[in-house]
Please model this.
Amino acid sequence: MGSNAGRPTSPPAAALGGRLMQLVGDRDAARFSREISEVCVEPHPTNGRPAYRDVLTWVVDAIVGVIIARLGAAGPGEELILQLRFTDGGGYVDVEALPASERWVLRTVSAFVAEDLTEGKRLLTAAEQFDITLRAETLADAIIWLDFVLDVDLPDPPDITTT
Model:
């Protein structure tokens, strides 16, 4: 389950993803911006740095993994659906009103949570074609979402009776 879809995460991508998470946790905006910029400027590097898609895939996979670990996987014939609500009144967030980068993160994570690997892979491929600014915003937003889902209080998964 997740965005890797049978493809292992590259160690450099996981290391950079972890470093980006550390920088968010440290609130080190300058180094965070520099690291994001470096991976986005050259999405297919030849200098040993991880590719943009590999880092983004690692982050999306981590978000999906946290959600599934916290809420449990969907049972047979069931599907998990992500819905965002405002904290002040509980109303639903209009996905179409979100900035493009946030909309991409929500749709991509939702596709993988729903186990729609075809759509998830399509969205990951599309992200590689974004202009440099949107690539940077998308990766930054994905890291921030991962930081959020790691910190948010989610309900315990329901007890599942097995026979």
User: Anything to note?
Assistant: The two ends are 23 Å apart (CA to CA). DSSP finds six helices and no strands in the chain.
